[in-house]
Amino acid sequence: MGNGGQKRTRSERVAALELPPGSWRRALASLRRRDVLVRLSLLVAASVMLCGVIRGWQPPFPYRADDTLARDVTARVPFQMADVTATAEAKDRARWQVKYTYVVDPASLERLRSKLRNRVAEVMRAATYAEVDPKVWGEFQPPLEKGAPGPSQHQLAESFRKFHDALVGDQNLAAFEENVAKALAPSETRGLLEKLPGGGNQDEIIVYPKGRTPEGGETVKVSDVLIGKGTPILESLRSRFGSPDVADPVFEWLRPRLPDTLTLDEAHTKKALDAAVAGVKPVVVNYEDGQTLVEADKPLRRDQIALLDAEYEAAMAQQSLVERLARAGSIVTLILGLFALCTPYLLMHERRLVSSLKRLFMILALVIITVAASVTLARWPAVDGWRLEIIPVLLFGQTVAIAYRQELALLLAAVVAMIVVLGIGTGVGGFLLLMGVTATAVLQLGRIRSRTKLIYVGLWSSLIAVVLTIATKVVENPAMMGEPALAMLVIKEAARNALWTVAAGFLMTGLLPFIESLFGVLTDISLLELGDVAHPLLQELIRRAPSTYNHSITVGSIAEAAAEAIGARGLLVRVGAYFHDIGKMLKPGYFIENQSPNENRHDSLVPAMSTLVIIAHIKDGADLARQHNLPQPIVDFIQQHHGTTLVEYFYGRANQQHQEDPNSSEVDESSYRYPGPRPQTKEAGVLMLADAVESASRSLVDPTPARIESLVREIAERKLDDGQFDESGLTLRELRAIEDTMIKSLTAIYHGRVKYPEQKTA
User: pTM score, two decimals?
Assistant: First the structure.
């Protein structure tokens, strides 16, 4: 029967043929997907943040202390720089011009006059030298110099006579007191000072009376107030008494007792010092465009670093907005390009990092934190030239290697090292050093079975740090090795880099538990601790279901050997096997390994109920694991070790009952399957097969090698046909290697034993 339409020509049929879209069309189509756009937006945001962290809008400042330049550095723009030394000298000169301010309090000097009057009165009570107390009269004599002979008794008597005769009588004593008061009056007004502090004007000071303000102070000469031989008090006494016979003894009594009557007004003096320093303008040196700032083949000093930094800031200030935006845009594009280079590897080997927004966000956040820490440490003025940026990059590479895999760690470490080099300007040599040391550390992180492993990783990496530091320096400037001083600087830098590398190993040892918790990974160290039979859950399993515990230990041994055969983590599988059946401890009597020969609780249950009891040990085990804070990978083993396999025994009984009773409802196969999920990793797939073959091998009457091999092959084929390994990543070649290893393990377990003559068959 015709279709009622016109028959198309051959050319029309060819034109109507539609070919599948090409790779570019598929890529463009994927860009319209919301999840892809979200991830692209996250990458763009991370690139912009990284550009901000490294200040991508301006070139980096590449110079560090002790660097040796291969060529002279000249000024790109004219600029000014304050001469710190000259400015400091000018401020010091200003300080030395400031007159210190003192408060004068004459009360102590007035009390001294009163004491002098009493002492003179005591002397005057003696009519002759023989009657005077020698100790009292000795106070009026000049101090003896060391080793010099003292005055004779005749001289002492003569001086006493002259002193006594000059002051005898009440009128003379009254005149004496008046003359002393007038002689000390200038000192009471100006004050007395034992010693002048350094730092200010040493010729003049400002003095004002106690109780008044410093604004009305008087400027006096320092020589007029200093206590000592040069004090004007002696001259004033001689002029008042007209004779040294009285003036000199009085002065000798006063000189050791003259008090400090001047107190420094610290607040007013500091204010004057600060004002003087603030009034000093910085001494500025002008530099012209093209002027040589630093000569080649000489290590950079701190003052030269400051000079280069001033030139750098001047050059950056002249950048236009367009130039800054253009450079920032270029940096963002370069970072996006680096991320794009990582994308094919992630899609092929680490798709979980792309599919999970949480994982992608965490790794990008780790990249940003690492770059920020590296750039901050590299620019830290207090440690300029210390090369501390190597520590964050090393920690980043080791963290990714532990959390994911070594290949990804090498790839992302190269990206981070490149961005850090863009931010600090160390060039190819800096990139080779960062990448070489990080690669050395990452390649040693295959298995971490002891806490000292990370220390040894740091030690071996430190040797590479020494070699790479020296090699890059020689390549950049071969002539420096001919100069002993420059060679020592290179060796010093190499030793410093080695020290930071070892320090990173110690830091990584302390950070390891936090990294495991943050990324949900288990190192061999944690697995060894977790696999301890003293764990509370394992102890409870031994007490409640000892046969299940023995089954778990056997499965662990079989699974570990099989996992090692394909390069998977055998220790992880073994520890997972220890816990995979902990859910059975809640109802141990319903599982055959824990039942007595003549008792089976399932005889009184319908198949559907028995299936529910059997399947429940998966959920019960996962709940117990979470309650006891077992890591997520162990919980995954508990949930995945049966996948979605069929509980064949009870499914068969249900079908048999349905055949015997045609009026019963149809048997739904999905009701007799485990909830899953199917094994998501190779290790989970290995555990599934090991659990199945170990349980089935117990039913073999005569477990010969041939029967064991047939059993293992049959179970593996059945699991494969049922699709249980579809999501595990296992290949057929790996599955064959697993089967061979399990056959050897089971054969070793059920090996034949020599029957001794007296031994009887049980």
Answer: 0.71
